[in-house]
């Protein structure tokens, strides 16, 4: 039996589970204009699902089309949609619009379990969320990477990072940290800004070009990894970097926000309150100086990341989730 699906996750094409096979119509990420999305909506009458990954605008437009044309039977599924708590008046206007339109989304597939922020601000029913564990990005490349310990703290990435708290936590410590991130013009689009004024001498800023191979090498040569996030974050951020770090056998220190304790528990990473330089400083000092303590998190994190593996495990998990829903029809 065929499951007919429109998606920008091309790896679902021809996946077979039991007697079910996915028949994929490839959704181009270049469809983000109204005419193209309207065409997809019309095509979708002949399909079982539309599954879109990381394209919030497209999901919202399709939800609007389902609102004005509710006879379309195709189920709209959003995956890894990144939402932020509304702060400005403009945000709150869009919040109202999203609350209305998200009622037309059948499921939200997320890489974190703590969806309380989404439920609170966007009134999405809890049973619409489905959790799927994420994957280790660049898994094959990581397996080929030489792991060393050059004694520095690694901090990197671009989404909702709180570099200021790390900088304060590192002041006057005897070891140094490398902050590896892209230009402010790029990271500001992801809710992050790095102020390079009055940096302590033990902080090195590396403005990275986005090359995954060199980014991984910086992680692989570190002693431990710190990923501090902004406390108002209601979506998971930093998962990709912390899983790559774990796969490279690095102890990670993370902010207590969605996608951390709700996914990892307490034994795979060190968890600290967000935007708390003193707590972060204490966590860094203990992890840096206590080899046995640090080693425990390295072992547990590595085991977890390797069990997740790379792309195939993630796409099979998504396929199984959709199959389970389809079989209940």
Q: CATH homologous superfamily of the largest domain - what is it?
A: Glycogen Phosphorylase B
- Structural class computed from helices and strand pairing: alpha/beta
Number of helices: 13
Tally of distinct domains: 2
Average pLDDT score: 95
CATH top level label of the largest domain = Alpha Beta
Give a verbal description of the structure.
The protein has two domains: 2-134 and 311-327, Glycogen Phosphorylase B (Rossmann fold, 3-Layer(aba) Sandwich); 139-308, Rossmann fold. Helices cover 40% and strands 18% of the residues. The chain has helices spanning 34-43, 56-68, 89-102, 116-122, 139-143, 163-170, 184-187, 212-220, 239-247, 261-264, 277-289, 291-308, 311-327, and strands at residues 2-7, 16-17, 20-26, 49-53, 75-79, 107-110, 129-131, 153-156, 177-181, 203-207, 224-227, 251-255, 270-272. It starts with a strand and ends with a helix.
Give a quick rundown of the structure.
With 329 residues, this protein is of the alpha/beta class. It has helices spanning 34-43, 56-68, 89-102, 116-122, 139-143, 163-170, 184-187, 212-220, 239-247, 261-264, 277-289, 291-308, 311-327; strands spanning 2-7, 16-17, 20-26, 49-53, 75-79, 107-110, 129-131, 153-156, 177-181, 203-207, 224-227, 251-255, 270-272. 40% of the residues lie in helices and 18% in strands.
List the topology elements.
Layout: E1 2-7, E2 16-17, E3 20-26, H1 34-43, E4 49-53, H2 56-68, E5 75-79, H3 89-102, E6 107-110, H4 116-122, E7 129-131, H5 139-143, E8 153-156, H6 163-170, E9 177-181, H7 184-187, E10 203-207, H8 212-220, E11 224-227, H9 239-247, E12 251-255, H10 261-264, E13 270-272, H11 277-289, H12 291-308, H13 311-327
Parallel strand pairs: 1-3, 1-4, 4-5, 5-6, 6-7, 8-9, 8-11, 9-10, 11-12, 12-13
Antiparallel strand pairs: 2-3
Helix pairs in contact: 1-2, 6-11, 9-12
